[in-house]
Design brief:
Elements (H helix, E strand, L loop, with lengths): L1 E4 L2 H12 L7 E6 L5 H12 L13 E4 L6 E5 L8 H4 L2 H6 L3 E5 L12 E7 L6 E6 L5
Length: 141
């Protein structure tokens, strides 16, 4: 499904709506340019899962954990990984086994490791704040 977002708030709302359909073990694989709105979408996912903590990009830490919602949210940023195999070095399989949702920014750096993810592609639209968001996989909003 393709959605048009005209603001950061609308992008977050779309993430929040998707969160209502997520179950333990789901993987959300994000793609999109730097600054496209991947973290904004993840903030919405977190809110939809009942997370009350401030959600920030895990660019330098690789993964942020949010445990206070109906499901744990593990927010990954693979931008700095040089190969998909490095995911195993940070405990990827352990995160999958913990019964949460894994939101993965720069998922193309983990290709081959992410099995059957829900894909969220975020691209810039015609206006500065506009985004074209395409969601494919088992669940749509």
């Amino acid at each position: 499904m393709e959605y048009l977002s005209n603001s950061e708030a609308e992008t977050e709302a779309l993430g929040e709506a998707l969160a209502g359909r997520l179950t333990a073990g789901d993987v959300i694989a994000f793609s999109g340019d730097l600054g496209a709105g991947k973290t904004a979408f993840t903030r919405g996912l977190a809110r939809g899962l009942g997370v009350t903590e401030r959600v920030t990009s895990p660019t330098f830490t690789i993964v942020n954990e949010y445990l206070g919602g109906r499901l744990p949210l593990f927010h990954f940023d693979l931008y700095r990984l040089s190969s998909a195999e490095e995911l195993f070095d940070i405990g990827w399989e352990d995160y999958l086994d913990r019964g949460g949702v894994c939101a993965v920014e720069w998922s193309e750096n983990g290709e081959g490791v992410l099995e059957d993810p829900i894909r969220v592609d975020i691209r810039r639209g015609a206006a500065d704040d506009q985004r074209v968001i395409t969601i494919t996989g088992e669940r749509t909003v």
